Every structure is written in C-alpha cells, then in structure tokens.
C-alpha cells in the first residue's frame, strides 16, 4: 500500500465516523409521536370478520397529489377514503377520527367501529406546532391519513417497502452513507 492509498483510507474512516455521529445525533433529536395502547371492545369477532371481507374488496388508493419538497407522489386522505369507504360501509364498518386535549397535549383518536358495537381505537399525540395553525393543520391531516390507513388496511398504489432507507442520509451517490447501528452494535 502506498502513502496516498493510506491517506485515502484514513480520510474515508474519518468521513464514516462523522456520518455516524451525524446519524446518531439525528436519531436522538427525532421524536416520534407517541401512540397509546389501543382500546377495544371485549369481543371483536364481528369487527375482524367484516374488516377481513372489506380488505378483500377494497381498492388501492391512487397517488393523487405531489409533495413538491421531495418531488414524490402520495395518496391524500380523500383518495384513501374514496378507495375504502364504500366497502367499509357495505360491511357495517366506519372510521371515526376525533381531536381531544388533555394534560397539556393534543391527541388524535382513530376508531374503527362495526355496526354490532364492536370497536378498536388508537390514540396518538399530535406534535406541538409552536402556535402555527397551518403547521397544526398539516400535522393533523398527516396523522389522520396514516392512522386511517393503519386502521383500515388501505394501501397506496405502487407503495414501496424500502425498509426505512428513504429516511436515511445519503452520500453523493444516493446510497446510505454509512453502516447503520443500533445501540453501538451492528
């Protein structure tokens, strides 16, 4: 190995260490909205039977909007509802999404209910919008969309499961910039 190769390797190692420190910092700063334990009716057999039938009939939501920041297409809440509501209703199901405020925090509760009275609800904290009403509206719409999809099982056209890679920092070639670790272990 000549001296230049050695210098290049040392520089690569320094870059990798900087990337790991940057990623670890981002992980520590990132706060995921908290999801509380679901509440549910004692019995759920009719709810689950109707949901299974609904999911076998449900359409795929079209990606009908563009995120200008990421230049990507996504399914709006309206698109998800259009793809699923007729089938939910046909099978005696409905989705209720309510806002609440408690202990200084705002929450969105999503309930999937069946005409038999059986239900299943999830509650998520809405992140602080620091007094900006447009930011609050964006958070609420975003959470409604994802919680609705989770409750009903509706999916977007061409959804890709990229194992979280889209959320990871990239190097200049478009690849994840360094090996990923959790708790210092690979």
General description of the model:
It is a single chain. This protein has 186 residues and is an alpha+beta fold. It is 40% helix and 19% strand. The protein has helices at 3-29, 45-57, 77-90, 133-152; strands at residues 39-40, 65-67, 72-74, 93-102, 105-114, 119-126. The protein has a four-stranded antiparallel β-sheet. Strands 2-3 form a two-stranded antiparallel sheet. Strand 2 (65-67) and strand 3 form a beta hairpin. The radius of gyration is 22 Å and the shape is elongated. The two termini are 28 Å apart.
- The coarse silhouette is elongated
Structural class given helices, strands, pairing?
alpha+beta
Which sheet architecture does the biggest sheet show? 4 strands, antiparallel
Please, what is the oligomeric state?
Answer: single chain
Task: Please report the distance between the alpha carbons of the first and last residues.
Answer: 28 Å
List the helices and strands in order. HEHEEHEEEH
Mean pLDDT: 80
- Adjacency order of strands in the biggest sheet: 1-6-5-4
The level of helicity is: 25-40%
Radius of gyration: 22 Å
User: How many E strands?
Assistant: 6
Number of helices: 4
Helix and strand layout, with pairings?
Blueprint: H1 3-29, E1 39-40, H2 45-57, E2 65-67, E3 72-74, H3 77-90, E4 93-102, E5 105-114, E6 119-126, H4 133-152
Antiparallel strand pairs: 1-6, 2-3, 4-5, 5-6
What's the quick description here?
The chain is an alpha+beta fold and 186 residues long. Helix content is 40%, strand content 19%.
